[in-house]
Automatic annotation (TrEMBL):
This is Adenylate cyclase. Gene3D superfamilies: Hypothetical Protein Pfu-838710-001 (2.40.320.10). The lineage of its organism: Bacteria, Bacillati, Bacillota, Bacilli, Bacillales. It comes from Planococcus maitriensis. Residues 4-189 form the CYTH domain. It holds the Pfam family CYTH. SUPFAM superfamilies: CYTH-like phosphatases. InterPro entries: CYTH-like_dom_sf, CYTH_domain, Uncharacterised_YjbK.
């Protein structure tokens, strides 16, 4: 289990911008699927929190994101295939650190429901003291492209990210979190 502060900058990309950046870095994306959970009355969303089960090949992790003064806190439990399958089937929630944080938010794991899934094809590279991430996401018939920059120093990270966008002549296009984009698409169905 880990609890970390996440500071990231995001920008939506066109398919062409994404392809160009991917080609420049000579990166091969790895596919991962996020399965999102909330209560039927969206108590996590209302507290600006998000819960996901992420599958990357044969690895599984359950992460709860909660707001912080700058960025988000991420509480994560690594799971095995059986634990992940039980969570997806809403049979059992065996993620102790995440469970404790959920209870702190007033949400019982037994109240959770699976609200949907989003698949991301992700490429990552170290860049000027942070992690540069290129994401191509698919969900509910929607396809989008995003650039993220994950850092530990917010001020320096912002300068570097803006400089990169300017250097690549990519307009600033604010990007909601993936779960927010997913929920927006789901509400249109």
């Amino acid at each position: 289990m880990a609890k970390e502060l996440e500071i990231e900058f995001k920008n939506m990309l066109t398919k062409e911008e994404y392809s160009e950046l991917l080609g420049e870095q000579k990166l091969a994306p790895i596919s991962q699927t996020n399965h999102y959970f909330d209560t039927a009355d969206f108590r996590l969303r209302d507290q600006k929190a998000a819960l996901r089960l992420r599958t990357i090949g044969s690895r599984y992790e359950c992460t709860l994101k909660t707001p912080a003064a700058s960025g988000n806190y991420e509480t994560t439990d690594s799971l095995d295939e059986g634990q992940a399958s039980a969570m997806l089937g809403l049979r059992q929630f065996d993620a102790p650190e995440v469970s404790a944080e959920l209870e702190r938010l007033g949400v019982s794991p037994s109240d959770l429901t699976h609200i949907g899934s989003l698949t991301t094809h992700r490429a990552e590279i170290e860049y000027k003291g942070g992690l540069l991430v290129l994401d191509h996401s698919e969900y509910l018939g929607v396809e989008d492209f995003e650039l993220e920059y994950e850092v530990t120093d917010e001020a320096a990270g912002k300068r570097i990210f803006i400089s990169l966008l300017e250097e690549k002549r990519i307009p600033m296009r604010p990007a909601d979190k993936k779960i927010a984009r997913f929920m927006k698409a789901a509400s249109k169905r």
